[in-house]
Fold this sequence. Notes:
The chain is an alpha/beta fold.
Amino acid sequence: MSARTGSSAGPGRRTNILVIGGGLAGLAAAVRFRREGWDDFLVLERGDEVGGTWRDNTYPGAACDVPSHLYSYSFALNPGWSRSFSPQLEIQEYITRVARQYRVRDHHVFGCEVLSARWVEGDALWEVETTRGPFTADILVGAFGALCEPSLPDIPGIGTFAGKVFHSARWDHDSDLDGKKVAVIGTGASAIQIVPAIAPRVAELQVYQRTAPWVLPRLDRRYSALERLACRYVPFYQRLVRGGIYWAHEAQAIALAKRPGLMRPVGLLARAKLRREVPDPALRQRLTPDYRAGCKRLLLSNTYYPAFREEHVALVTDGIAEVREKSVVTTDGTVREVDALVLATGFQVTDSPTYRRLFGKDGRSLGEVFDTVGRQCYKGTAIANFPNMFLLVGPNTGLGHNSMIFMIESQVNYLADAVMTMKRGRLRSVEVRATAQEGFSRMLRERLSRTIWNVGGCASWYVDKHGANTTMWPGFSYEFRRITRKFDIDAYHVSTGGPQ
Ligand code: N01
């Protein structure tokens, strides 16, 4: 057995359930299976540790922008969080601790990338090819995440750049940026954390902005020893704190998803912050978004704008025309010398390469199906033509206002109830009905048409190549919890004669 395998699990095995991906979603599913007493499952993880995006995003300044007491599993609260918004390493340590505590590491096969997964109708099982050999399973769980495949910009000449180039989610810690001329491309959630974190170390920092983000105050602080003691020892205290944070965040869905007009005060607050933190009117003008607050993800930072007060930090708003061996050239003809390029350009969210590796009942890949009908999915979880397959963090499960872990746990409830239903009923396969999927997609489209993401006047990665927002959940997260509470078998085609 390889040292990279967490278990006695090995390639070529047949299991009841195979999970692709050992991030927050895969881990939540694994813990649930263990708690249900279903030990016949494996998690295939291409990395060498659990954690997913939190394992991969080690860039300077990486931290969560959802409060930690909420951004944690309901079954594994952590009284020891050091701050209201925890840094990446603390979150990653929390995730690995949960994996150990619930004894699911042994169910992981690390260094195992899924190359293809095919549904074999005759045998009612999934045949999965991986870099560590074949696996078969009755049920496939796609927990490969949305924010894991870097989106690399297609800039002319970028391949000829002689210095270091790396994506924010693949930070090259061997590259010494101290005293160097560094260009950061992008001004999203990752970039606004990177810029203030590296600014003090570099000789020159060029920030290439295509679209200005809306930035709000970050109410971050250290927790006192007393607060941590209270979380640990005072019954219900931490649950109360968590509940308060949850409902305060949940209320934001009213403005984002139901009454976009209510986002106006948020825009005013962000403008006031911009005025306070950026005294130069010309610079402030260039940092002011030209779309409505909330259309793209609202960012939280107290250090991003102040970074531009330093003389060696420059905001560049002209488009990038090309990258040369030692410079970046903008469309106005300016050539800026650069030693290293940081690509904070986001992720392939609506076009995950993994979609092209999953093949359903009619032999077409999920990517091909999505090409034809768009990213239609039932409850973010099940897809017609893909029997016995359940996605976690699937289409339209994204939130702009609350913790993704809440959504993940909702989906895991649904998944667990589906597995239970299959076991009890000795079902061979379940496949969501096309009519149920279409009805659900219609409901989403109708509700999304009224959200700030659709009416806010911006381009964002929430929208797929068909022009549809197939990323965000258009409502309260508790509404999603309600519709995923029970596996609704009536929405599925069912075949019987499966294992007990
Ligand atoms: O990526 P993004 P991210 N030329 O896609 C620009 C989560 N997250 O990694 O806006 C020039 O938001 C692009 O410009 P534009 C969170 O959910 C969470 O920052 O498309 N620029 C944009 O400015 C977040 O939403 C935390 O015009 C190009 C930027 O690159 C998600 O991850 C922390 C370009 C990409 O921004 C993604 O955030 C970090 C090009 N060719 C991330 N292509 C937490 O704290 C793209 N851009 C929890």
